[in-house]
Amino acid sequence: MIALAAAFKNHWHAVERDLFTLNFTADDIGTKLSAAQLISIVLAAPPGTAVHHFNPQSWSRTDELIANLGEQQAGLVNLNARYERPQVDSTPVKPKTEFDSLPPYKGIVLESAPADEFTLKLKERQRIAREEAEQ
């Protein structure tokens, strides 16, 4: 119902145009045209209808591909998040640092970490090294 109300509020003329195409008017809502039928006309608008054209949730295949190419070109490294679009998680990604591109040093993968996290990992590695030396 919220989506139906939003379509009425934001795109009333598109809804009215589609009703005219189906030989209905706004006066037919609630009489000749049931609420269920109106919901079907507005929320399941097929391509070629005025409401479908104004639906902000639908992206064309071209729009999807251009967004994907832009993300690929950027490597998602310098972007805060993916482009917002339906059915895609656009939560911000962790920005890469200069350490992420370095090769492993003597078999140790270099990674950036906050000081407290680094200290915990360092103490754990030192404990493991002492245990191996005792054996």
3D architecture notes:
- The structure is a single chain.
- The chain has helices at 2-21, 35-43, 50-54, 61-74, 115-134.
- It is mainly alpha-helical and 135 residues long.
- The protein has 3 domains: 2-54, no CATH class; 60-94, no CATH class; 98-134, no CATH class.
- The protein is elongated.
- It starts with a helix and ends with a helix.
- The mean pLDDT is 76.
Number of strands: 0
Q: Could you say which structural class the secondary elements and strand pairing correspond to?
A: mainly alpha
- Classify the helix fraction into a percent range: 40-55%
Largest sheet: none
Number of helices: 5
**Judging from the principal axes of the Cα atoms, what is the shape?**
elongated
Tell me the distance between the termini. 70 Å
Strand-residue proportion: under 5%
User: Which regions contain 5 or more consecutive residues with pLDDT less than 50?
Assistant: none
* Mean pLDDT metric: 76
Along the chain, the helix and strand elements come as HHHHH
Domains counted in the coordinates: how many?
A: 3
Based on CA atoms alone, the radius of gyration comes out at: 28 Å
A few lines on this structure:
With 135 residues, this protein is mainly alpha-helical.
List keywords for this structure.
3 domains; mainly alpha; single chain; 0% strand; 135 residues
Write the layout of secondary structure elements.
Blueprint: H1 2-21, H2 35-43, H3 50-54, H4 61-74, H5 115-134
Helix pairs in contact: 1-2
